[in-house]
Amino acid sequence: MIRVLFADDHEMVRIGVSAYLSSQSDIEVIAEADDGQEAIDLALEHKPDIILMDLVMDHMDGIEATKEIVQKWPEAKIIVVTSFLDDEKVYPALEAGATSYMLKTSKANEIADAIRATYEGQSILEPEVTGKIMNKMRTKPQNDLHEDLTEREKEVLKLMAEGKSNQEIADELYIAMKTVKVHVSNVLGKLEVHDRTQAVIYAFKHDLVN
């Protein structure tokens, strides 16, 4: 059974969605919350497989609740279920740690399918949300990505461009291998590339190395 915590300040919404989900053979709603703080408390108490999180609630909104839950329990899988598609809600929710983003206009069976997919490790986003993310990526100046690198990360990138292995980088900078791996991971993440080769190509294109 996929154990679900549902946080929403509208009781009728909770009743309707919870009734449908509980009718599924593989989903069980184990707890309900009507505000962000209660969602945090129940999430940390029950450690559900999936948390359905409304964004606009009394006392503490879903974005703050999501952020605190993920900080205290990084393995949490949170599906935002909301009526809002504006940038002030979408980006902060995803940055806070939401795994998937659904609209309340979705059908009950679509939310159930999103729960199953998120439980299996997928990220389910409304088409409008995907479009917003893609547009943001297109408009983000690519030559600004490396400005987020620390001085140490720039050193690591230069040594990567020289073809040095993690062990050789560790030896040259007098740091632990584990620390090198963290720096390499940070470099790839900040440059938005998938491997060392792409990072090195980025470095040469932007004159970060000779």
TrEMBL record:
One MF annotation (Gene Ontology) recorded for this entry: DNA binding
4-aspartylphosphate modification, residue list: 54
Signal peptide extent: none
A GO BP entry: phosphorelay signal transduction system
Record's GO cellular component terms: cytoplasm
Keyword Transferase belongs to the record: no
Chain ranges of the HTH luxR-type domain: 142-207
Keyword annotations: DNA-binding, Phosphoprotein, Transcription, Transcription regulation
Translocase recorded as keyword: no
Pfam family, one: GerE
SMART domains (UniProt xref): HTH_LUXR, REC
Principal localisation: cytoplasm
Subcellular location: Cytoplasm
Annotated protein name in UniProt: LuxR family transcriptional regulator
Species annotation: Pontibacillus marinus BH030004 = DSM 16465
